[in-house]
Design a protein that fits this description.
It is a single chain. The protein is an alpha/beta fold. It contains twelve helices and 15 strands. The protein has a nine-stranded mixed β-sheet, sandwiched between helices. Strands 3-2-1-6-5-4 form a six-stranded antiparallel β-sheet. About 3% of the residues have low confidence.
Length: 374
Amino acid sequence: MTDLVIAMLFGLGLLQLFVDDPLVENIDVNGAERAYVTYADGRKELVGPVAESDDELIATIRAAGARFGLAERRFDNAEPELDLRLPDGSRLSAVMGVTEHPVIDIRRHRLQDHGLEDLMALGMLDQELATFLRAAVRAKRNLLVSGAMNAGKTTLLRALAAEIPPNERIVTIEQALELGLDRQSERHPDCVAMEARLPNIEGVGAIPMAQLVRRSLRMNATRVIVGEVLGDEVIPMLNAMSQGRSGSMATIHADSSAGVFRRIAAYAVQAPERLPLEATNLLVAGAIHFVVHVEVGDAPMAEQQGIGSMPRLRQVASVREVIDAEGAMIISNEVWRPGPDGRARPAAPLRDVTAAALAAAGYDSRRFARGRSW
């Protein structure tokens, strides 16, 4: 009863009980009367009312927008969308006015302070690929993590960031805070988290992600990490990656590692710069070294001791090395591609210059090339 009272006063009311449940992964609310909870083992259950009325639910979310985050975020008829990081690191997305009932979606990040070893235990990648990715981070290769929604892109990005030496200065940029690297004081003692800001009630004061990416170039950052590329920030991000911010990272939605280039081109042509495809491809070739693609398998994941389980087997399926650009084409090699079990396996040799850089960071490509077709 005490927990419920505290949740009603300082949290998300009845929703807080599910947010605090370590076995819950996703919470989807379709109005006060109807809510679904997805558990880590894949179960999805319809739970009872989460508020007395839709108005009470809206008031609860509005209060959360005022309390949590770097600045107050409105949630009303004038601003019917809300994206917010909750105190435990969960991501909340809400809409009203465009649906019959307010719709709330909460995604809990059950793995927040983890490394590549933890993802190996979950079956997301094997030792060979972990060694490769660790060397890529330490060799300051620029990485773009791709995948579908809920594929594990942010989880992998955090694990990759865990390989960054603690003496490096990191700046993270997000539409709504989610990565939480700035909270990991032992792993990342010098980390600044920046969050895009919406306009105030007068319609001024907005600071978009693209502006924050440009600002990061003046912050003496060793690496810039963009939580998710969503639009026109792709141009300043690529510029940052190609102008000395080696070892930077980002995530992007795509259906394959090759599909990433189409998505970037689509964002770039919508940006204020209106870059043509050829110019965009030149930027990509000069900025990105590897695309790491994550997919969700069909087989349920068995429970793991100590670090929990995942409802479906998320796994790194492809790693693509960007070679160059030629007109409307990006030249790339899929150096890791899906094996029989869906997980990435070595598939093509690295360029000599890349192999040398990774070798200096602890990866011997010749060791894993033995017995391969090339």
